[in-house]
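Please, structure for the following, as tokens.
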Amino acid sequence: MSAGRSDDPSYAGANPVQRAMRRLAASAPGSRVFAPLMHRLDRPVYRLTRGRATLGSLVSGLPVALLTTTGARSGRLRTVPLLLLPSSEGEVVIASNWGRPGPPAWEGNLRTDPVATLSLDGRRTRVRAVEARDERRARIWREALEVYPGYAAYERRAGGRRIGVYVLETDAPARP
């Protein structure tokens, strides 16, 4: 497993510091601080560790991957660090946007073009994002809460917005 992550990403398997960081990130004040800051810090840490870790993965013990999408309006490549959840359905990303009322930009990008590149552990993989719906979504959501209970707080703060849940299906290896 990568630097900063344990073999058990569940909340119960996290050490006390990692659990504290997950609680802080889920809180309203923590979200206000981390939302504009983490993506700016995750990328340089990712480069410094040659793709083995992000700041988020180091402090939370959770897998954080870089997802590169094609901008829905610009057509330009956009890369964002996201919590990558292991699920019975495969690797999953959740469009919580730190509990903000609006969806994250990357979700709109995936809705326009679901093909993306996932960078994790120094490897790049081409994926296709498939939105989970109905019982599949409910099952993944329950699993996600076992890893990161903060999603429940994000859902409350999202003001009734249905938070998108996406399974990243392997499409084909990406070019380096």
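The mean pLDDT is 88. Residues 51 and 122 are 4 Å apart (CA to CA).
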